[in-house]
Amino acid sequence: MPTDTLRVLRARIAALLLFVAGPLAAAPEIQEWTTGGGTRVLFIAADALPMVDVQVVFDAGSVRDGSAYGLAQLTSELLGAGAGTRDADAIAATFEGLGARFGHHAQRDQAVVSLRSLTDPALLDPAVELLATVLARPTFPADALERARGQMQVALQEEQQSPGSLASKAFFRALYDDHPYGNPANGTAQSLAALTRADVVAFYQRHYVARNALVAIVGDLDRAAAEALAERVTAGLAAGSPAPDLPPVPPLLVPISVHVDHPSAQTHVLVGQPGMRRGDPDYFALYLGNHAFGGSGLVSRLSQEIREQRGLAYSVSSYFMPLRQAGPFQMLLQTRNDQAAEALGLLTANLERFVAEGPTATELAFSRRSVSGGFPLNIDSNGKLIGYLAMIGFYRLPLDYLDRFIERVQAVDLAQVADALGRRVDPARMVTVTVGPRNPRGG
Amino acid sequence: MFARNLLLVLGLLPATLVAAPKVHEFTLDNGLRLVVQEDHRAPVVVSQVWYKVGSSYEHDGITGASHVLEHMMFKGTAKVPAGEFSRRIAELGGRDNAFTSRDYTAYFQTLERSLLETAFELEADRMRGLLLDPEEIAKEVRVVLEERRLRTDDNPQALTYERFNATAFLTSPVRNPVIGWMDDLEHLRLQDLEAWYRQWYAPNNATLVVVGDVEPAAVHALAQKHFGPLEPSPIVPPKPRPELTQQGPRRLTVRLPAEVPYLLLGYKVPALASAEPVAEAYALEVLAGILDGGRSARLARTLVRGSEIAASAGAGYSLHARLPELFLLDGTPANGHDVAALEQGLRDQIERLQQEPVSADELARVKAQVVASQVYERDSVFYQAMQIGILETVGLGWERLDEYVAGVNAVTPEQVQAVASKYLVDDGLTVAVLEPLPLAAAAAGGDGAAARPGGASGEKSDAN
């Protein structure tokens, strides 16, 4: 019988909220196994709705592009363009005719292929069969490659008219330099022009393999059915091997300032530096510290200082984006051009003060309550659970991550946050990117 | 190939798979409507208060007032100081925010289920007790001006949409952007907001929607306790202000610093609320799916693939709008093609819909997705509450959700052809083209704000 995991979690969370310091249940609700082909599988049974979510996650993000910028995105895009005997029209028509949702995209660390389907075997079986074919026998048609190349070129042009996109791209480049995280994930005009079908096929053959994949499943299946599904989805993948470790991110040695000219009414401001990895020992201390600083919406210190007290921005926030290696810590806002210098000064001054003094006891207590109290909302749907499963699996976080989340949040104290901020955030060495008509620092 | 069989399978699904969740409705003595839907999958609850007011209720000179008022609703009452609302919800681990659209202004909190009372207490307090402070207004208007610059003025496609929409409609209030015209925002006064609050914020102009791990009778009692004492107001519904009949195509060009051309086509169509018979509205909904219901739909198949004229192309229809809006088509041309070719490609698709019935396979795919979506949507308590709130607030009533699958399933190829022939015609058409001006020249010109034409929002919904 499938267990209703949400209900199990619900009971456990209720217990945690009432008895935070008490003994904690540790029943594993995430099931784990390895397919015959060597792919790790994580599964949560959820029987409330007759549907299933599947994600196949490959270590095949843009970090694997090498100098062929855009290759991971192009390969991912072409997965739906032809497989076995089917062309793009037939693949799309088959999934959509089954009421299934098929998706595929590449991010920095990973390439994700996803399927959402009803569990009725008349619908699920053919959808899973097609997913397996798409993964194992993509044909990468030449005409589809040219079309995808053209679409990526238009996307690059659209980026030129979006100050937010320009800022983000300049920020990653300045922050990571020639580390793979600095690569333009969506390519450049030159790199896109040079990509060939042979590049795509080689990238696929190297990275879309069983031992470089993770399968996450959430839905109304029992263990046997989930095992069968995972076997079928991965059946045609070559065994292959895991992608090699990524190099660590070198620390930023000096502050860097970048300005991009753009005829916008607002200046977009990004300030940050390399932050932390998934599974970082400082994760919970930095997460809670940032929650108080700029991670809790209008309540955060940055919002209070910049939006609520001064009306300088609609959106101002800070966050850590943990990746396989150190992802960015970033503060960002947008403001009318003549206010950009003032707003940038406030970002910097607030960060300096926060790192020097840490959060107040009141702020930290607030953040601990807010983050633990909000945990039930993080896991209240299959859609959110599959996201957690894929993250836990891909980054090899412990399987009791959800079980122990509240406990870990509650355990963070002021000294830990101050210590972590002091060691991990250096206001004197920040990348500062501005995008707007003129340099707010007088350039 | 397999679609006909699938349709049979899918035809059985609504009855066998998904028992429609039971909805409980109540009306308090002061006129507040309460709609509760139980969902016991997780120990959470979403609470939403929907007011019947939005940009389609506004008039010239105060455009954007509904949205600014939405922002001001977080600025305090006699009991709860400015900012305290969000702080209290956040301290409990809750999420809260608000959104404004043409037809509604809505406020929501998502919480662990035992905390619902806090949301009710705070919402009831600000329903009648908002304090509007001139300094807070001045500051918050600056925030909204930044929001407008971010969403619209610095987004060439959004700015084009705003101008397009104001050209398509001459007299209907849907011509105004939700976020308001820049100049109206800059001249918004305390008295405007006070009057707007008094006019629309009352229990008898609101619907409270609660979905989640709750018991309806208990929610009713809790609502009675907190909202029951509030005084109702006389609510005068907005004047009809119907759109004049369009008597020929309209066309506009928007020249802006940009890189990529953009095309918008809009046809005047009825929404479900005004369709006679209602089957026409469901036929238009299916027609939108035939064109843009996924990668197998016609625009992707024939214009993005096929002729490869479009880098992207889309279609959309607002089934649940309060007032008639537009059936929209939009797209960006692929490199090597121009906007004229893209427009011809889109018009060819319309013509084909008028001249031949859609195939059984295509219709089956649209219906299969609609049926499956009914299950997928239940994965989100928030989305379920949204659906109820929208239908209640535009005057259709939540019960109309239940007819959706049946309404779509009943649509025939002939009906799709008929609505295409009746509504997707030149007399009701507006076309807008974004013509890019060089970005580099504009940037070098210095002050981007001054280089811009007056400013403007394509967004149908603006979050706080």
Q: Brief description of this entry?
A:
The complex is a heterodimer of chains A (443) and B (464). Chain A is built from 17 helices and 13 strands.
Strand content of chain B is: 15-25%
List the uncertain runs of chain A: 1-28
Order of helices and strands of chain A: HEEEHEEHEEHHHHHEHEEHHEEHHHHHHE
Low-confidence stretches of chain B: 1-17, 446-464
| Spatial extent as radius of gyration of chain B | 23 Å
Shape of chain B: globular
Count of DSSP-assigned helices of chain B: 18
Report the portion of residues of chain A in β strands: 15-25%
Q: What order do the strands of the largest sheet of chain A run in, or round the barrel if closed?
A: 1-2-8-3-7-6
Largest sheet, spatial ordering of strands of chain B: 1-2-6-3-5-4-12
Rg over alpha carbons of chain A: 23 Å
Gross geometry of chain A: globular
Which features characterize this protein?
heterodimer, A: 443 residues, 5-stranded mixed β-sheet, 18% strand, globular, B: 464 residues, alpha+beta, 12 strands, 43% helix
Describe this structure in words.
The complex is a heterodimer of chains A (443) and B (464). With 443 residues, chain A is of the alpha+beta class. Chain A contains 17 helices and 13 strands. In chain A, β6 and β7 form a beta hairpin. In chain A, α2 (71-78) crosses α8 (197-207), α4 packs parallel to α9 and α10 crosses α17. With 464 residues, chain B is an alpha+beta fold. Chain B has 18 helices and twelve strands. In chain B, α1 (3-16) runs parallel beside α13 (360-376), α10 (279-292) crosses α16 (413-423) and α12 (339-355) packs across α16 (413-423). Chains A and B meet through α1, α3, β7, α4 and α5 of A and α1, α3, β5, α5 and α11 of B.
